Amino acid sequence: MNGPDPNKIFPNENLKRVCFIKNVVTRPDIVAGDYTYYDDDEGAEQFEKHVTHHYEFIGDKLIIGKFCAIGKGVEFIMNGANHRMNGITTYPFNIMGGGWESCAPRIDDLPLKGDTVIGNDVWIGQNVTFLPGVHVGDGAIIGANSVVAKDVLPYHIVGGNPAKTIRKRFDDETIELLLKLRWWDWPAEKITKNLNVLCGGNAAELSKLADEA
User: Fold this and answer.
1) Is 83 one of the catalytic residues?
2) Catalytic residue among 50, 54, 83, 156
3) Counting C-beta atoms within 10 Å of the first and last residue's C-beta, which end of the chain has fewer, N or C?
4) What residue ranges define each of the domains in the chain, with the CATH number in brackets?
């Protein structure tokens, strides 16, 4: 066996609080890689409900890499949540109706931040909120209850509101090696063969694998 089927909703039928996201999203503006999962005992397959203010006419995407672990209660706030900021007031009169529709903002009036991008092998704790347009690097860890308002560097641990860097996971040399290695792009057979190394964190062993790649 070379791991679970990445095309199943629930990789483990005995653990239906964990689902592979790519197999439950229906919106083309949400993209998730193989083996990335959402963990929620109240409906893991309803991941899309945690992507809010996401409107097709704006055109922004949520892009999540492979092998990410996403905790319960996450919220990805997309660009549709932004209000016009170049007027006297930020109040969205136009969505209230009653004749106020006439002041609807143009797209270029809104402070759009672009796509929200989560790298590969990112661990996201429970109840984390991502603001529009942030980019999270490969191998990062986001502490529970954090609000991510700015980009997160690869293999950095962040936490808090707003989330700030706590520390690096590895030294710079090891981080560079991991980003070169890109183990998440290996075939399932190679990943299975090297599970002990991937879970052990031995830099010397990783270097050997990089040479073989």
Assistant:
1) yes
2) 83
3) N
4) 18-169 (2.160.10.10), 170-213 (no CATH)
